[in-house]
Amino acid sequence: MALTEAVKIYGFGSYFSGEHATPGDIDLLVLHASEAKDSINFAICCKRALSRAIPKVHITMLSEPEERDLSFRSKSNATFLSSVREDTISQNVQNILRIIEMSAGIAVGRRRSHR
Q: What is the extent of the structural domain holding 47?
């Protein structure tokens, strides 16, 4: 049985600390398991999906070993939002979008045009 890639998504910065008076940029951390090619490629795929779904998003990608070396989550007061799995990426990204919208009480997702 093949392993399914997964990443953890964290929010950090003023948007998640409650310091935003008006919605600005949204800072996300994509935390992937390792520096192996499959792990990195899936993290890039997630970054693209999140970038398409969320306007004004800034995404930092780190492997778990890099994050341990940097202590990024604790230094940035990052908040765990959700995981994204390879087999449910679209649903997971939509769930993250809902979590972000609930944290600010506003819609932040990109509108799809109907032609």
A: 6-104
